Amino acid sequence: MNILKKSYLIIIAVGVLILIFFGSSMFFTIQPGERAIIFRPFGDGLDKENIFVPGFHVVAPWNDLIVYDVKEQQREETMDVLDKNGLSVNVDVSVRFNPIYDKIGTLHEVFGTRYIDQLIIPEVRSMVRQVAGRYTAEEIYSTKRSEVEQAIIDETKIILEKNNIDMRALLIRSINLPDQIRVAIENKLKTEQEALAYQFRLTREESEAERKRIEAEGIANYNQIINSSLTDKILKQRGIEATLELSKSPNAKVVVVGSGKDGMPLILGNN
After folding, report:
1. Where is the Band domain (predicted)?
2. Residue 49 and residue 56: Cα distance in Å, rounded?
């Protein structure tokens, strides 16, 4: 009985020693916004399929639990790129991203925990340079800035997604040119805007002149038609009708038919 009791005590003591020496490498709490994978050096190596989610986990002390921060992160980069004519353009960008949760095993196998320095930053810089090289400094700075920005976003998102990164946003915060080039571009744009404004005013005045010409032609044609249709007989008839209407007023008057000029009626005795 004493031997059995001693055996129990030995087992308990060994267990306590294991907890003391290996407890920190056996018990893990994965926090919200984290995921983990396990590496078994004496087993099948890196387990890319089973992803540990937030919570408490027990792992054999000889295995490695690798924890990844999968919350959205941001990095900012300032770089000098060349336009299609070889002119240097300074671009300041920021990118927001996070690892794809269920792909951190593959991400770790290829890039490791330093994937930001090994993957994110190099690819962002590469895409900015590639896209900028297809445009002139003027297009990047002003005339096609939105198009350039969208091309960088689309192409960067594709390459990062292929490498198990979800790119949430990419912003071009600023584009800077050498002062001499910037002033030249701004002056050119100002001149072009003034020319467009002048052309608009000229076109508007030409349209107004054409409208007035058409209106004048219409009035002239109308008068010509009226004049050609008003014969002496029609004029006399209209005069008689107007005179008769006037004679119906309550004021006393005398109408002498055929006594006026050209045989038109006269109204006498207005009171």
Report:
1. 25-189
2. 19
Evaluate if residue 124 carries a pLDDT over 90. Answer: yes
Distance CA 137, CA 175 (A): 10
The length of the chain, given as a count of residues: 271
**Stated pTM of the model:** 0.60
| Residue 201: φ, ψ to 5° | -65, -40
Residue 9 phi/psi, 5-degree rounding, is -65, -40
Q: Identify whether 87 is part of a domain.
A: yes
How is 135-152 classified by DSSP, letter by letter? S-HHIIIIITHHHHHHHH
Residue corresponding to tokens 């054999």:
60
Cα gap 51→36, rounded to integer Å: 6
Backbone torsions φ then ψ of 266, nearest 5 degrees: -115, 145
Question: Across the strands, what pairs with 161?
Answer: none
Q: What is the pLDDT of residues 199-238, one digit of tens each?
A: 767 677 777 777 777 877 777 776 677 666 656 666 566 6
Residue 16 structural domain: 1-69
Number of Cβ within a 10 Å radius of residue 134: 13
DSSP secondary structure code for residue 71 in this structure: S
Residue 8 region by backbone torsions, left for phi larger than 0, else alpha for psi between -120 and 50, else beta: alpha
Please, what is the Cα angle at 33 between 27 and 34, to 5 degrees?
40
Number of domains in the chain: 3
Answer yes or no: is 246 within a domain.
no
